[in-house]
Design goal:
two-stranded antiparallel ribbon; 72% helix; single chain; globular; 1245 residues; mainly alpha
Length: 1245
């Protein structure tokens, strides 16, 4: 922009006419937005002077526009001019003329906000550091010296902004800022702005200064004598806890004891603000630092019990009732006096602040319930009765907090009920108080406050889930209040109606029908009317109520209840049918109407004269893409109805439509269709013509493929369901389904539920097709399928699935045929044919022998054990598997052979122990297996413990697995036996038993009580002197924390220090080996570090609330700075997860990650690096860049200037790093892969 043009704008801004001045400022702001805007030095001076003059303008709009222009000037004028402008504004801010103070402060705050955004990246670090070191001291001086209290706060606000936007650049001034802010906390009646500044200082300060701040605040809690000053320091602590509670955690052992007297002593009884601040602080501590507050939980509970009932103006119930009875006898002539008394009461209520401590107590209790589920029994015994007593709270906001606290208690109870089998003592206390709870909730439902009524309804819903049985007798007391809510049709009442309908649904669903049936007629008309409501949520919820009513009233004919279920069913049908016909309604209403109609038809189909009309309407819904899935589910529900014949008139068309839907691409549509077909054909298949089955099987055959194994599982299940119900369909299954199933059996992806379904399919098909197919018609295609595989490309999974299928076929076949097949497989092993043939034969023999005793085969044992000496490792493994399964089929015959060979032939021990593992695993899932293996347990234990010190690590690992799985056969006796060996002198034995303990953890909960008793003893090995034992303990901890975190929950605070110690590189575990002229380092601690970080990752997911995040993230930084790429990658995974869970913690530590990240992305390999090293390094750099992108996405990450500078200077100025970084940022992994490939090729060249 030319100097002349700027001069024109300056001239406008200097005009006497305020409108022209405003236009000049507007023109300037428009020009400043252009990248081409440039000024010479003299023009800069004139422009700045003119704008600063406008700050003193009498027109407020002009002043605001001038502030905006000042912010836009940043980045367009020289650094020296910025400093000069700040000095001139500061002069006005700190001057004696109060008129200029406010606008000057606004201008300075605008400059501070604009600086980090508009200064070029290359100069940002230098310019901001220089300006802050020039400006902050003047502001601090202003805080100390200005005689204007409001101006002190303005200066503090500007310092606070500097801390927010570039607080890390003037750390040398942090201590002085802390001194000034701490000294001014008590200088103002409302110190919020000072405290806010102190908070942001705490975020940016180093540990030494932060500890000083925390200690100073704590000291004042006991040294101050004035309550308002104590409250101010507590508010500061509370604010810091909200922002960075993890840093405050180490100081809570002093803060909490210092503040407890203010909630306990009578002399502070009327200082409600002080007590409220204490309670809010405790609530924050409980949420952010659960470990540190553990010793004070009892004190918090006692305080809450005392303060939640503190209401000096509250009149006890009996006195209230007396007064109520007296008031009823009063004459109407006394109304004037009553009004006067009411005015006095209102004045008293206005002055009464006791509600603050009651609300604070309720919120603290809510936090305690949420974070301390292990103290559920204590809460019910000590706290629940008090909370229930406060349901009649007169202050609405307190009552809602009480409701919320009790709802949190119920939520934790529900979670505990799900996790713990058996009866909870807590429920007994809840049931004993159910009368009081319902009485108060019934009263709350009749109050005028919408929030109170919604809160009561939410609490009723929670109660219906936790203790439905005890609520059944109380429903009658709640119905009037719910009816009242449903009848209120005011526009603002929709939320209450929705909650009321939802509550009815929960009550009907969770309680016995007999409890709700007597009340249905009293509110049915309202419900039916609400189904037609224009609000889609009300209409859909009302339809759900109709559906539930239809469910509960149908069995009523067999009970003593007197209700016309047929009449009610017809009324519900008509209301639902009217909505089912409508097309111009919300999707949610459509789906609710379909679901409701399906339920009505399944319960009243034979009593409704026009049911066919509804069925045709539902059939139409299948042609609409939006309602298709809901319609399919509806027909499944109708088909399951005990009323037979409902679907007969639409059956052929329905089956044809469902078969056609199997061609659609949408996965959920195909899955739902198959499930519905399975149900329909189970009950109506006999009425379906043969040609319909033929068309159906053709469609089904196209779904049996490994692209969607779950769909294949559903299809196979449907096929054998049809076969079971209608054996005449066997040929159809053989013609259309069997070829596809046989083809799928060779898929390398076949496993899990799809494999199990296939085994069931063959077990049903073989006996049903004896007249159609021979034994070999099943077996030969399977064997051929395997033998035709390329030996280099064959998947090992095929040797798992095909032998199991062969065994399933054998179980349903003639014994002679099976014996011939066994003989063939034995011959195949003996013939020493190709490897695939031998492995298939061995695996098949094992699978057959597991279910049938093959000890009669004379040379079987010799043939299988002979393969232990084969040169192929795969054949050895197959032989081990085979012999283990054969032994499971007849333990008395084969097991002594395993024991003998373990003792006599050391080279076979690894394979023999794998066989033992099969024996133990195959018998672990049944009572029959327990009885079979029980006589052999002592011998098994003896031989396993003897081999815990086996010199082969692989053998020891298998021994550990055998010990752990064997312990589950008698956990009360055998787990203590494992524990005894944790103190063995041999580190190998200690390692083996700790690893064995991991295998005691299964999905079954039967042994959990015993495991819980001994888990602490095994975790003591985390501190073992031998690193191998510690590694084993880490892996075991990781497995338990992932599978069943509740078992180690109480131990985590105690073992974290031992876990963290394993994240550090230990020089004593690094060995140097000389290989001729070369030396090579071996890090024996690497596996421990990898295991430690894997465990940290698991704990972050399952036990986050037990972690001190400050300590945790410090060790993540250690991981990022590790020498091992594997450890670095693990640390990156944890960091990415932390970004999701707690952005604030990561943001406060951003700058500390810069150096290790820089070291990773700038790492240069040696010139002679091989391709594998190059690719590995590229992967680590890619992971680092991905983490950096995620860190950059954290809100306000640009305020971490060291991190921002690292991105700009290190990454974006390097063309290779920039290309990778931008590819990740834009989410283009293909581009990134191409770049890696080309980069690797260049380095390789």
């Amino acid at each position: 922009m030319s100097s002349f043009a700027v001069s024109t704008i300056i001239e406008k801004m200097s005009s006497f006419d305020s409108d022209i001045r405003f236009m000049g400022l507007n023109d300037l702001i428009s020009e400043l937005a252009k990248d081409t805007f440039r000024l010479d030095y003299s023009t800069e001076n004139t422009l700045i002077t003119t704008i600063l003059k406008l700050l003193s303008d009498q027109n407020n709009e002009l002043q605001s526009k001038a502030v905006e222009a000042i912010g836009d000037l940043i980045g367009k004028i020289k650094d020296s001019q910025i400093t000069n402008m700040i000095d001139r504004i500061l002069e006005k801010l700190l001057g004696d003329n109060e008129e200029f103070h406010d606008i000057s402060a606004l201008a300075l705050r605008e400059i501070v906000k604009s600086l980090p955004k508009k200064i070029p990246v290359a100069d940002r670090f230098r310019v901001l550091g220089s300006i802050s070191k020039h400006t902050i001291p003047q502001l601090l001086k202003g805080v100390k010296s200005t005689p204007f209290p409001e101006n002190k706060l303005r200066c503090i606000d500007i310092i606070r902004d500097c801390l927010v936007y570039f607080g890390s650049l003037f750390q040398n001034l942090h201590e002085e800022i802390s001194i000034v802010t701490l000294s001014h906390i008590t200088a103002f009646t409302a110190p919020k702005r000072v405290i806010d500044c102190l908070c942001h200082l705490s975020v940016n300060s180093n540990d030494i200064l932060f500890n000083k701040i925390a200690e100073d605040l704590t000291k004042h809690l006991t040294s101050e004598t004035k309550n308002q000053f104590i409250r101010a320091y507590l508010q500061a602590i509370l604010a810091i806890s909200h922002v960075i509670g993890y840093r405050l955690a180490p100081h809570l052992d002093k803060i909490i004891p210092s503040s407890l007297p203010y909630c306990q002593k009578e002399k502070y009884e009327t200082d409600y603000d002080l007590r409220e601040t204490c309670l809010q602080s405790y609530e924050s501590f409980v949420s952010t630092s659960p470990k540190e507050v553990a010793p004070y939980i009892k004190s918090f509970i006692d305080i809450c019990i005392n303060l939640i009932s503190h209401d000096p103006n509250y009149l006890p119930d009996d006195e209230s009732e007396d007064e109520d009875s007296e008031s009823e006898d009063q004459d109407e002539s006394d109304n004037g006096d009553d009004e006067d008394d009411s005015d006095i009461d209102d004045e008293v209520d206005d002055d009464d602040l006791s509600w603050k401590v009651r609300k604070g107590s309720a919120k603290l209790l809510s936090a305690l319930f949420r974070t301390r589920p292990e103290q559920l029994d204590t809460f019910y015994k000590e706290v629940a009765p008090v909370l229930i007593g406060r349901f009649d709270e007169r202050e609405e906001n307190v009552k809602l907090s009480v409701f919320e606290a009790f709802r949190e208690l119920l939520a934790q109870t529900e979670a505990m009920m799900s996790a713990q089998k058996g009866h909870l003592e807590s429920l007994d206390i809840l049931n004993d108080n159910i009368d009081k709870i319902v009485k108060q909730l019934a009263l709350s439902l009749k109050q005028t406050s919408l929030k109170t009524r919604v809160g009561a309804l939410s609490l009723i819903t929670s109660l219906s889930k936790v203790t439905p049985k005890s609520l059944e007798d109380q429903i009658g007391k709640l119905i009037p209040g719910i009816q009242l809510a449903l009848k209120d049709k005011s526009p603002s009442n929709s939320k209450l109606i929705i909650h009321s309908l939802s509550t009815i649904n929960n009550l009907i669903s969770n309680t016995e029908p007999k409890a709700f049936i007597p009340h249905i007629e009293s509110f049915l008309s309202v419900i039916l009317e609400l189904t037609q409501d224009k609000h889609f949520k009300i209409s859909s919820e009302a339809l759900k109520v109709c559906k539930n009513i239809a469910i509960v009233i149908k069995p009523v004919e067999n009970s003593d209840q007197k209700i016309d279920s047929k009449k009610i069913g017809k009324e519900i049908y008509e209301a639902t049918f009217s909505l089912l016909k409508e097309t111009a309604v919300d999707q949610e209403v459509k789906e609710a109407a379909i679901d409701s109609m399906a339920t009505i038809l399944s319960h009243f189909g034979n009593e409704l004269g026009n049911a066919e009309q509804a069925l045709h309407l539902l059939l139409e819904k299948l042609s609409n893409e939006i309602t298709r899935v809901a319609g399919i589910k509806a027909f499944q529900l109708i088909a399951e109805s005990p009323i037979k014949g409902i679907l007969n008139k639409v059956l052929p068309k329905l089956i044809e439509t469902l078969a056609q839907l199997l061609r659609k691409k949408k996965k959920i549509l195909k899955q739902t269709s198959i499930r519905t077909l399975e149900t329909i054909l189970k009950y109506y298949g006999a009425d379906l013509p043969k040609e319909s089955y033929t068309k159906l099987f053709i469609e089904l055959s196209n779904l049996i493929q490994d692209q969607d194994l779950y769909l294949a599982h559903l299809t196979m299940r449907l096929s054998y369901t049809i076969l079971e119900s209608y054996p005449v369909m066997a040929k159809q299954v053989v013609d259309h389904i069997l070829p596809k199933v046989l083809n799928l059996s060779g898929s390398p992806l076949l496993q899990g539920v799809s494999l199990r379904t296939m085994l069931t399919f063959f077990s049903k098909l073989v006996p049903a097709t004896k007249s159609l197919l021979k034994f070999d018609d099943f077996i030969q295609p399977l064997i051929k399928l395997v033998l035709e595989q390329n030996s280099k490309e064959i998947s090992k999974q095929i040797f798992t699935s095909v032998p199991q299928i062969i065994a399933a076929i054998c179980q349903s076949s003639d014994e002679k045929e099976v014996k011939k097949l066994v003989s063939r497989f034995v011959s195949d092993v003996q013939s020493n044919k190709d490897q695939i043939t031998i492995i298939l034969a061995l695996c098949a023999l094992g699978e057959i022998g597991r279910n049938m005793d093959l000890s009669y085969v004379s040379n079987l044992q010799k043939v299988v054990l002979g393969c232990f000496n084969n040169s192929s490792e795969d054949i050895k493994a197959a032989a081990s598997f085979s012999f283990g399964n054969l032994s499971a089929g007849n333990m008395d015959f084969f097991l002594p052979v395993i024991f003998e060979r373990i003792q006599k032939i050391p080279k076979e021990q690894y394979l023999l122990f794998r066989s033992l593992r099969e024996v133990i695993s195959r018998n672990a899932d049944s009572e029959r297996g327990l009885q079979i293996i029980k006589p052999h347990i002592s011998k098994l234990l003896e031989i396993l413990f003897l081999n815990c010190e086996n010199e082969n690590e692989g053998t020891r690992n298998v021994v550990s697995e055998c010990l752990g799985k064997l312990a589950l056969f008698d956990p009360v006796k055998l787990i203590p036996e494992l524990k005894k060996h944790t103190t063995s002198a041999s580190p190998l034995i200690r390692t083996s038993v700790v690893s064995a303990f991991k295998y005691c953890i299964t999905k079954d909960d039967a042994a959990d009580s015993v495991i819980q008793q001994y888990v602490g003893d095994f975790m003591e090995c985390l501190g073992d002197k031998d690193y191998i034992v510690r590694k084993s303990a880490l892996n075991t901890l990781n497995f338990i924390a992932h599978s069943k975190p509740a078992l180690v929950r109480d131990l985590i605070p105690k073992i974290l220090s031992k876990l963290y110690s394993e994240t550090i590189i230990k020089p004593e575990l690094i060995r140097v080996i000389k290989l001729g002229p070369f030396t090579h380092e071996i890090d024996d601690g690497l596996e421990n570090r990898k295991a430690a970080f894997d465990t940290m990752n698991t704990l972050l997911t399952t036990s986050y609330n037990l972690l001190n995040i400050s300590d945790f993230i410090a060790h993540v930084q250690i991981g990022v700075d590790d020498s091992s790429d594997e450890v670095i990658t693990s640390a990156f995974g944890i960091l990415n997860r932390l970004i999701v869970i707690n952005k604030d913690v990561v943001r406060s530590s951003l700058d500390s990650f810069v150096e290790p990240l820089k070291k990773i992305v700038t790492k240069r390999l040696k010139p002679d690096a091989v391709q594998q090293e190059i690719q590995k390094n590229e992967e680590v750099i890619a992971n680092a860049l991905s983490v950096i992108v995620n860190l950059k996405k954290i809100p306000d990450s640009e305020r971490a200037l060291k991190f921002t500078e690292f991105i700009q200077q290190t990454i974006l100025r390097n063309s290779d790093l920039k290309a990778k970084f931008e590819a990740i940022e834009q989410g283009k992994p293909d581009d990134l892969d191409d770049h890696y490939l080309s980069q690797s090729s260049r380095q390789n060249d």
